[in-house]
Design a protein that fits this description.
By secondary structure, this protein is an all-alpha fold. The chain is built from 14 helices and two strands, in the order ααααββαααααααααα. The N and C termini lie far apart (51 Å).
């Protein structure tokens, strides 16, 4: 171990364009690093080190929360706890997948794309498992003789959203999950992929907010609790940092190692997940007596089957893109980092 040397770091002009990051001028690892080099690089200061650790450590935090909740009294006995697993399992998975992607993405251009295929596949599962408070059993009330039973709904909330409003958000969430899993483009779609990402799936992240505060308020007064407010703030800040590439865009080279947008993006994403979990647990605690009287929409088998189906669908999407990537020639613009049009013109010349 004493004979091992830390990998040499490179400047931006010394690595292929596919590895370039906006505003990051130094701290790049060799684009042909071995797996051991990638692991060792997580213990030296590169432009990826903070990215790795800001998701590796939270992985263990969310795993601890999952085990603590699952081992608590009454968790398995209460059916309304089961859908929480669809949220907690991906909440543990997505930071670990991101950590692995940032660790091993410098092995080759193909390995870089495959790593982020898996990263965004894990994000899509988290998007699917994100709690839908308006579409849950806690947001519906029973009717007696055609009159709404306010007593069955906590806090006298408006608990009967129209059917199309209960359907629209889950369908959009499934679409969003599919777009996240399919985010790595095929070679014929590789031009301007960052622009496509911003224009297509970023607005869907804000869709729950628009539906919540649109016509026919049905989110409930508890949506204004502290945890919900912090979660919303972190979600908005996360999207802004991911899309804007600030502050490194304003001062290229000044934030190569500490303080660039992707590091801040990781921190805000993890904090958002933490506050989201706290908000869900607070909602469940305040509704415990009422939830115990409701029949779950899905049993444990149905809940697990839904998650397994989503995992299988994501793996099929990732496998399709990976197979297309492995068949692509090394001169493909997707592997060079240049625009598709430029590669096509070069081939014609």
């Amino acid at each position: 171990m004493l004979s091992l040397k830390l990998p040499q770091l490179l400047q931006v002009h010394q690595v292929p364009r596919v590895f370039w990051e906006d505003g990051i001028m130094s701290g790049y690892r060799r684009p042909t690093s071995s797996a051991l080099d990638c692991v060792l690089s997580s213990f030296q200061m590169t432009n990826e080190t903070v990215n790795i650790w800001t998701h590796f450590l939270p992985t263990w935090y969310f795993l601890w929360r999952l085990l603590a909740l699952a081992g608590g009294p009454g968790f398995r006995a209460e059916p309304y706890h089961w859908p929480l697993l669809v949220f907690l399992l991906p909440a543990c998975l997505y930071p670990f997948a991101s950590c692995c992607a940032h660790t091993f993405s410098s092995m080759s251009p193909r390995a870089r794309h495959i790593c982020y295929f898996l990263d965004y596949g894990a994000l899509s599962l988290y998007s699917l498992g994100e709690p839908d408070r308006r579409g849950s059993a806690a947001s519906r009330s029973r009717s007696r003789g055609g009159t709404r039973d306010i007593g069955a709904c906590p806090s006298g909330l408006s608990c009967t959203p129209p059917p199309h409003r209960r359907l629209r958000l889950p369908l959009c969430r499934l679409l969003h999950a599919g777009l996240l899993a399919a985010r790595p483009p095929a070679p014929v779609l590789c031009a301007c992929r960052r622009t496509q990402l911003l224009l297509v799936h970023r607005p869907l992240l804000l869709l729950p907010l628009g539906l919540c505060w649109g016509r026919g308020h049905s989110c409930g007064q508890e949506a204004l609790s502290t945890s919900h407010g912090y979660h919303l703030f972190c979600a908005l800040l996360t999207g802004f940092l991911f899309a804007s590439h600030l502050p490194e865009r304003l001062a290229p080279g000044r934030f190569d190692y500490i303080g660039h947008s992707h590091q801040l993006f990781h921190i805000c994403a993890v904090l958002g997940t933490h506050f989201q979990l706290e908000a869900v647990l607070a909602d469940m605690g305040s509704r415990r007596a009422w939830l115990a009287t409701q029949e779950p929409a899905l049993g444990l088998a149905g809940t697990v089957a839904t998650l397994v189906l989503a995992v299988a669908g994501n793996l099929l999407i990732i496998a399709a893109f990976t197979a297309s990537l492995l068949r692509a020639p090394s001169t493909c613009p997707l592997l060079q980092g240049g625009p598709l049009e430029g590669g096509t013109q070069a081939k014609q010349q």
